[in-house]
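hey so u asked for the seq, here:
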Amino acid sequence: MSSKNNIGVIDYGGGNIRSLIQALEALGASPALVTAPEHLESLSHLFFPGQGAFGDCMTKLEGLGLVEPIAEWIQRDKPFFGICVGYQLLFEGSEESPDIKGLSVLEGNVVRFEEEGIKVPHMGWNNAQLQDPNLGPWTGLGLNPYFYFVHSYHPKPKDEAIYAAMTTYGIRFPSAIQRGRLVATQFHPEKSQKSGMNLIQNFLLQK
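ran it, structure tokens below
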């Protein structure tokens, strides 16, 4: 693992980040909370766990002055891990908050599950079919690891080349993406027991 003291977790005051912090501490890390742009300066790895409505999260990020610094971090290809709404906010917008612009570091939008015969939100355990199980943080997880999901919306990236894992819930959707050192998941690795912990640990090994 890289230095145990240069891992940051974005805390915009609207999400439950405790489970992620506990997961990182279980791996021997001492994550720092990021609530201002200057908190990013000494970090090597950045986690963005999101919870709540797309628009509310973006508004809180803007209030903290973190929108441009996060986008710059990603554009510099520094290790970044987005979780749930922290994945969705990477895109241009969402049906959940149609008047709010996302971080727009990736092309595409976030849509709601509309398929008949399924319950929304999608909640519980489901598998993620890895596109390349030998790639970076996905090594050692097998072809179809199971993860824990809680969501009503999911991204539709324009670039299918960034798909890292696919999950079927009514439709097949990209439950994880990867572009360089950017990783983002619709599922919650910090709540996904062994598979999730292995994924987080693999990510922390990235330089």
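The longest helix spans residues 193-204. The helical segments are 18-26, 54-63, 67-75, 85-88, 193-204.
lmk if thats what u needed
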